[in-house]
Amino acid sequence: MSEETLTEILPPIRHWPALDLAGVDFDPVLTELMREGPVTRIQLPNGEGWAWLVTRYEDVRMVTDDPRFSREAVMDRQVTRLAPDFVPVRGEVGFLDPPDHTRLRRSVAAAFTAAGVARIREKSRRMLDELVDELLQDGPPADLTAAVLSPFSLAVICELMGVPAADWHGMHTWTQLILSASHGAQAGEKAKSEMGAYFARLIGAREGSTAEDVTSLLGAAVGRGEVTLEEAVGLAVLLQIGGEQVAHHSGQMFYVLLTRPGLAERLRAEPEIRPRAIDELLRYIPHRNGVGLSRIAVEDVGIRGVRIRTGDAIHVSYPAANRDPDVFPFPETIDFDRGPNPHLSFGSGPHSCPGGMLVRLESELLVDALLDGIPDLGLAVPPEEVPFRKGALIRGPETLRVTWSCR
Question: Which CATH class, in words, describes the domain spanning 3-403?
């Protein structure tokens, strides 16, 4: 796009509050922003100033792939943001640009490939079967989140990370303190420091390891001098915390399936469509409240006729991109026959989430175990009485009360 076609007229700044939304309701402010234009300006509850927002699929892909938009440049900036206590940490993978970002991600890439995730599939299935057996033995009603979804996501990520089973409970406690606003920033920072110290010891002990779990891969990379111990610890903490958040995705997925029984019935009748159906649920379900980390333009860039100036902050919205009608016809409809389905639920570009294969594995195992193992599984409360987490960046039900017929 030529310089002459770029407008200098700035759109109005829209305040975007952090809304606590129930179920799979789509953020009404984001809906308005999508209608107002492909490039808008927003002000979030925390930080300073305003930032650009792009919502169209092609624009989101462009911004996340383009090196002219830098994560590292966010350091030392009070960019408008959702989280009140969020502080960028220099050297963390989320705030690195290539080639440092590429180097650090490469150290653990093998664990998150199809082959790497397949390594833990059978053990994950056995752990899930044990959880479902305990659920059935205890009898209905039950909280599916507490009984199955949360302990399963914890067990899977700890297995992938190489965390010994005796330390799983401690990992969960640290994660909850880090992510919960109710305990305060000081408690969260203390928990993050303690988790980091734990991983420093574990990675350090595995510098000569040839095992395939994440901490062993990081230990080997540190031993070869490819990454520093500090970098390895930061990445391990991020992956551990992110892995537990899969429980919130699973909670929303089963909320959808149990409030729209026709979808669950089809998945029982046609098990061959389950992988495709899970991808459609990943596209449809708005897992994130608001937006994530911002980027900074390091030179002037034109997007849809709008000039993004050097130094401007910019956010992308993956939930909005997943509802772009130019890419996903009838985006408000859950269509298990949709194809292709190039959704951006795991992000895009160098900073895309490495855990896509892991989320799909957990989702497929859960659908198999719960829909096949408990054919009459249903909600024990009306849908509107399912409580959803408040003040959370990642959405999901706090509890998911379910029932079934005892046999």
Answer: mainly alpha
